[in-house]
Amino acid sequence: MAHQVTIKDLARHLNVSVATISRALRDMPEIKPETRQAVLQLAKEWDYQPNILATSLVKSRTKTIGVIVPDLAYHFFASVIKGIEEEAFARGYSLLLTQTSELYERELINVQNLSRGQVEGFVVSLSQETVDLDHLKRLQRKGIPLVFFDRDAEELDVSKVMVDNVGAAYEATKHLIDNGCKRIAFLAGPQSVTVSNQRLEGYGNALKDHGILIEESLIVHGEYALSKAVEITHHLLNLENRPDGLIVVSDRLAVGAISALKARNIKIPEEVAVVSFNDEPICTVITPTLSSVAQPTLDIGRNATALLINEIEDTAGTFKPEIQILKTQLIVRESSQRLK
């Protein structure tokens, strides 16, 4: 047949009711064996495929998860999504995937559209603009499960899968100090982004523990844009007493920082050493290779999805939100390793 075969097509051809076809396909005992055989034979011949979505909606189940991330072009988010999909597939769920492009309004629309699409829960990493959380609080009021990863909102009592950003930044900053850096700048993300603030906290802790004064002029916040990183780096280099070390909140921004350093003919790491976060593939192909904090991206995705599905399938109502903090690893490369 030219169109997708429906139960009505089978019923019309066999001159029986739609209810009879439905019961035969579900192997209900009240259907005569010869009728069941005829239905199954025709369904096979016509390649009948049940409408899974319609069936699941009747049962109030779609087995679909909504995923919202800031930017699909980021290797970090793409890798986390791979983990999300692997866990979802293993447990019989599918994904509806959207990106916010770091815009609050787009995040709001994505949540609204996915909610109308009957997703059973959300895995979310917030946009850099998101401060108003009403759209997510509405999900909670409706009883729709929500799990955060990477970027979260501390005031929402939901499950979260994060890494130890404070500890990771502490280790990265200590590494620069151990390699002789005395004026370490921090190229941060927007002040509304918790992950950036946590890394800034770790940076400050390391400076304090090593007797280095925290200078506000060396801490600069900016949007997650490569051009902004270039601008901020030039600003830092124009200071009367410029930095000799640079912690950058993400690899993408670090590429901009290195570009600015090269434009000023500043030697890396001899004059300015650089460390960033996420350990994306570009770290190994740029010159110099970039030291970066690696995160267990696949585990972040898998764990976040497992928590979400556990909550979705908690028919007893005993599920309690869980916060998981995963470990990171500093990968040292040419951009920060000074010869002693």
Describe the structure.
This protein is of the alpha/beta class and 340 residues long. The protein folds into 3 domains: 7-50, 434 Repressor (Amino-terminal Domain), CATH 1.10.260; 62-162 and 297-326, Response regulator (Rossmann fold), CATH 3.40.50.2300; 165-295, Rossmann fold, CATH 3.40.50. The chain has helices at residues 7-14, 18-25, 33-45, 52-58, 75-90, 104-116, 134-141, 165-178, 194-209, 226-237, 251-263, 297-312, and strands at residues 64-69, 94-99, 121-124, 146-149, 159-163, 184-188, 219-221, 245-248, 273-277, 291-294, 323-326, 329-331. The strands form 2 sheets. Strands 2-1-3-4-5-11 form a 6-stranded parallel beta sheet, sandwiched between helices. α5 (75-90) links the parallel β1 and β2 (94-99). α1 (7-14) packs across α2 (18-25), α5 crosses α12 and α8 packs across α9. It starts with 6 loop residues before the first helix and ends in a 9-residue tail after the last strand.
Could you provide a short overview of the structure?
The chain is an alpha/beta fold. It is built from twelve helices and twelve strands.
Lay out the secondary structure:
Elements: H1 7-14, H2 18-25, H3 33-45, H4 52-58, E1 64-69, H5 75-90, E2 94-99, H6 104-116, E3 121-124, H7 134-141, E4 146-149, E5 159-163, H8 165-178, E6 184-188, H9 194-209, E7 219-221, H10 226-237, E8 245-248, H11 251-263, E9 273-277, E10 291-294, H12 297-312, E11 323-326, E12 329-331
Parallel strand pairs: 1-2, 1-3, 3-4, 4-5, 5-11, 6-7, 6-8, 8-9, 9-10
Antiparallel strand pairs: 10-12
Helix pairs in contact: 1-2, 5-12, 8-9, 10-11
Protein name: DNA-binding LacI/PurR family transcriptional regulator
Domain HTH lacI-type: 5-59
Keywords: DNA-binding, Transcription, Transcription regulation
